[in-house]
Amino acid sequence: MNRIIKFVFFDIIRNKIILGYTLLLGILSWGVFGIEDNITKGLLTILNVILLTVPLVSIIFSTIYIYNSSEFIELLISQPVKRKRIWLSLFNGLSISLILAFLAGAGIPILLYAPLRIGIMITFSGCLITAVFTAIAFLSSVSTRDKARGIGVSILLWLYFALLFDGLVLFILFQLADYPIEQAMIGVSMLSPVDLARILILLQMDVSAMLGYTGAVFKEFFGSGIGVVLASVFLVLWIAIPFSLSLRKFSRKDL
Amino acid sequence: MIWINNISKRFGKLQVLDDVTLTCNKGECIALIGPNGCGKTTLIKTILGMVVADKGDILFNAKSIAKDVAYRNQIGYMPQIGRYPDNMTIGKVIDMIKDIRHSDTPLDEDLYNAFELHKLADKKMSTLSGGTTQKVSATLAFLFNPDVLILDEPTAGLDPLASEILKEKIISEKNKGKLILITSHLLSELEDLVTQIIFMQDGRVKFHESQHTLKEQTGEATIAKAVTHLLKAGTYE
Question: Which pTM value belongs to this model?
Answer without folding.
Answer: 0.88
